[in-house]
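User: 8-oxo-dGTP pyrophosphatase MutT (NUDIX family). Structure?
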Amino acid sequence: MTPDDGDGFVYCERGHRHWGLYGAAGLLLTDPARGVLLQHRAWWTHHGETWALPGGARRGHESACQAATREAGEEAAVPVSAVRPTAESVADHGGWTYTTVLATTRHPVRERVVNEESAELRWVPPGEVASFPLHRDFAVAWPALLEQLDRELVLVVDAANVVGSRPDGWWRDRAGAAERLRDRLSGLVHTGVRGPDVGLGDAGWSWWPRVQMVVEGQARDVTPADDVEVVSAVRDGDSQIVESVRKARDARPEDHVVVVTADRELRSRVEAEGAGVLGPSTLLNLVEG
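Assistant: Predicted structure:
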């Protein structure tokens, strides 16, 4: 064992004993066809004989997402390549945190018990999870986690409005300005955003968004990035954004759809479609911060 392992018990400010010197993390993995993956903890483990998530202690150098996916691989043979993280929720116990990483499967997972920490692994329909003898802390967290299960944050960005919100010479090279915005948005996909920063409330939540950038005019030929979809407006940009919101809502009605624009008329139109709205300056502060 090295000092970076993170294995060990600590006491939080509430006087509870927890596993993980640097905190802990677990993976709440959803397969729409099978449910959520639960782990029946071996009798000898901390809170043994209860059901919870594959997970464990964070290492000193790890993010919560890295720890959760590593532990799921070590305990349930879930490959990192099969996991698409969508959000995370942090439970702060005072001096110790547990982070639940919510994710969906990119392709079918062949889970199996890999080590002695698991007595069983099972895909459980979300509506049946609460009937299991759950780990104490997981039972407390489950109702809030269930509300966000299999939901994603979709950011639809009005590129012309965002790049035009700052006088940095964008009018001389609108395509170049749109490309710079695309690249900054790509970074945001990987770092994630805090829920309150995009109007999603609870400070304990963060999201890895799916991003769609709508371009028009001289920026029409901007190419997409691997993780940023670029949509060229067929008619005008506003109509394309409204159409993008409608398609997103039709395809996945429970997702959080947020449009980034300062255009008042467009704001009204997308709000009527059930989307939230974020101002350009807020987005730019996020991608530049």
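The chain has a mean pLDDT of 91. Residues 127 and 146 are 9 Å apart (CA to CA).
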